[in-house]
Amino acid sequence: MSATLLLITGSLLLLLGPRVGRSRPLPVDLSRQTVPAAWKGLLGRTRVVGGSRRAAAQRIDLERWPALIQQMAALLRAGIEPAAVWAALREQGRGEPPEEAGVVGRDIDELIRCAHEGALLGADPARSLRTARLRHPRSRAVRDALAAAWAVSGRTGAPLAGVLEGLARAVEDELDALAARDTALAGPKATARILSTLPLLGLGLGMVMGTDPLGVLLGMVWGHLALALGLGLSAAGLLWTRRLVCGAEEAAP
Fold first, then answer.
1. How many domains does the chain have?
2. 66 φ, ψ (degrees, to nearest 5)
3. Confidence of residue 103 (pLDDT cuts 50, 70, 90)
4. Which of 183, 199, 219 is the last residue in one of the domains?
5. What pLDDT does 214 receive?
6. Quick one: pLDDT at residue 41?
């Protein structure tokens, strides 16, 4: 009997264990101290939704934004005019099929297209950037920050390349902070999933031990009350845990 119980428990742990270990911590670079304070919290009010694997995939996709901003800064430092930067970026991005670009990739293409067309017409770069209709909420946040950086540089005369480099570092720091937050929340989420399976495990163990828990729950008045109370408490626990996790995600800087 004890061997059977150990076998069942071990099987459940093997099934649940990989889900606990799917979220891998991404390195957080705490050495960056040169990020302008104006860019802090750039992405903090938008959330990546979905499971840990989907969230990790979205974070990897979002890393295209700091890479794009760094590339813009490099082109400017190489002596290319700001209006010609968009033409170079648009020409470089023509080779990737739209179906393989993903949501963020298509957002980047849309941003570059709007900025390039505005540059050809001699329009204000910041205004041209804000006309881009982007789908991902974090893409929209980066778009607004990029437009603000372009406007600040044009209004104050600050070197645009340096402003963009600071913005790229800020976006990278925000993505690293999101990765660290998701890693910290992976434990509570996994614990909630495991605890939600314990009632089913108890029913299975009761049947293995020769009792009839289903008959008691379904065939007696007290069983009905116990079943209703158990389902209610389980639902309340899951909702409470989800509320705590969502609160922690929204409160993250």
1. 2
2. -60, -30
3. confident
4. 183
5. 83
6. 53
